[in-house]
TrEMBL record:
Residues covered by the Pyridine nucleotide-disulphide oxidoreductase dimerisation domain: 348-457
More info: The active site is a redox-active disulfide bond.
S-S bonds: 43-48
Lineage: Bacteria, Pseudomonadati, Pseudomonadota, Gammaproteobacteria, Pseudomonadales
Species this chain originates from: Pseudomonas aeruginosa
Protein's UniProt name: Dihydrolipoyl dehydrogenase
Keywords assigned by UniProt, alphabetized: Cytoplasm, Disulfide bond, FAD, Flavoprotein, NAD, Nucleotide-binding, Oxidoreductase, Redox-active center
């Protein structure tokens, strides 16, 4: 029997579950097909959320064991209970997944537990988790199947010794030596977790810099900070092969520019070279769709080339970020419902949850220079911010880039304490085409780290008052 819906959403990650919830809010009959045992996708189950739980716990452990607490007059003798740290991480994730289930019930979203495959225009077949099969139809179908870790030829992931990001969140022991392949967001965040817990961490990167795409000055500042924390970086290095055994992994390395091969030993290796869209077995050919060479599905305003098929999240172009998927989900469903909706793809923030944190939105200096666009720069260091200094967290800075003529804010880049919670102000400013002067003339509470943003805006015009 064919079950009919207004909208079928395939995938229940941040894009999928937000699309389904918004459809329910708008009164549409909606089903969300997800084969995982819990809702939330990679982000909630084995990505964003569990990694943040370990980042937070490891930061507290490092503060307690590294003398930071003693400096504040707090005497402790910390002992690492890794099993309990993992347990609290899992409990936190479970609570969040139950929260999404509650929202599905609240907004009358039917969760169909299984794996979907397109079967022609307006039709979806589902292999149910209980072994059965279901046939669904809808006027509109939203593909939100997310992404998976990108493989590295010659380095087979087994999640025993050679790990992907999921495996690195489940280790039962602190590595003696963890080698991270890839100096991007995932590699640096997870590498920093295990470094704080006591591992020796070596980061290998094919390029001559960390965090490709990040503003160069910001990336260099982060690398210096992580190096001071004990992480070792080998840039311009290619991993040729890896062989795992009971006791560890042997890697073959070469200079990216070519040269002799050398060996490197580790007891665990994390492969974190990025992610790729996941559309395997989805039946795209039945509706005339095909992914491009990067595995992505082309679209115009989330609408694919196939009638009634929409695409959001990691299967589309742009950064693979949960909040970007959520924005696309809202725009997609609003358009399905016949409402006007737009998304400003130029104002999508990114965050690296290391210590110090990194947050940015808009264009970096290298991008502006490549576009031959004239711009002004304002900087303010956290070493001159009273709240950061009193908290002994004065590493980093805020940088604002504005148009040389109009003063419109073009990009904001931050390295420092708690900047993940500050970048939203910059996003609002850019969304409303604010100038650096607008930020400079806005009163900020004292003493807060947010004052550094205002001072950076003042510095665009050479008027910073606290530096």
């Amino acid at each position: 029997m064919m079950e009919s819906y207004d909208v079928i959403v395939i995938g229940a990650g941040p894009g999928g579950y937000n699309a389904a919830i918004r459809a329910g809010q708008l009164g549409l009959k909606v089903a969300c097909v997800e084969g995982r045992e819990t809702l939330g996708g990679t982000c909630l189950n084995v990505g964003c959320m569990p990694s943040k739980a370990l980042l937070h716990a490891s930061e507290l452990y490092a503060a307690a064991s590294g003398g930071e607490f003693a400096r504040l007059g707090i005497r402790v003798s910390p002992e690492l209970d890794l099993a309990q740290m993992m347990k609290q991480k899992d409990e936190s994730v479970a609570a969040l997944t139950r929260g999404v289930e509650f929202l599905f019930r609240k907004h009358k979203v039917q969760w169909i537990k299984g794996w979907a495959r397109l079967q022609g225009e307006g039709r979806v077949g589902v292999d149910l988790a209980d072994g059965g099969h279901a046939q669904l139809e809808a006027r509109d179908i939203v593909i939100a199947t997310g992404s998976e870790p990108a493989p590295l030829p010659g380095v087979p992931v087994d999640n025993q010794r050679i790990l992907d990001s999921t495996g690195a969140l489940e280790l039962a022991e602190v590595p003696r030596h963890l080698v991270v392949i890839g100096a991007g967001v995932i590699g640096l965040e997870l590498g920093s977790v295990w470094r704080r817990l006591g591992a020796r961490v070596t980061v290998l990167e094919y390029l001559e810099r960390i965090c490709p795409g990040l503003d160069g000055e910001t990336a260099r500042t982060l690398q210096r900070a992580l190096t001071r924390q004990g992480m070792r970086f080998r840039l311009g290095t290619r991993v040729v092969a890896a062989r795992s055994g009971e006791q560890g992994v042997e890697l073959d390395l070469q200079p990216a520019a070519g040269g002799a091969t050398e060996s490197l030993q580790a007891d665990y290796v994390l492969v974190a070279i990025g992610r790729r869209p996941y559309t395997e077995g989805l039946g795209l050919e039945t509706v005339g769709l095909a992914s491009d060479r990067r595995g992505m599905l082309e679209n115009q305003g989330q609408r694919s080339a196939a009638p009634g098929v929409w695409v959001i999240g990691d299967v589309t172009s742009g950064p693979m970020l949960a909040h970007k998927a959520e924005e696309e989900a809202i725009v997609c469903i609003e358009r399905i419902a016949g409402h006007a909706a737009e998304m400003n793809a130029e104002v999508i923030p990114s965050v690296i949850y290391t210590q110090p944190e990194v947050a940015s939105v808009g264009l970096g200096e290298e991008q502006l220079q490549a576009a031959r666009r004239e711009y002004k720069v304002g900087r303010f260091p956290f070493s001159a911010n009273s709240r950061a200094k009193i908290n002994h967290e004065s590493e980093g800075f805020i940088k604002i880039l504005s148009d040389a003529r109009s003063d419109q804010v073009l990009g904001v880049h931050m390295v420092g304490p708690g900047v993940s919670e500050m970048i939203g102000e910059a996003c609002v400013a850019m969304e409303f085409s604010a100038s650096a002067e607008d930020l400079a003339l806005t009163c900020h509470p004292h003493p807060t780290r947010s004052e550094a943003l205002r001072q950076a805006a003042m510095d665009v015009h050479g008027r910073a008052m606290q530096n």
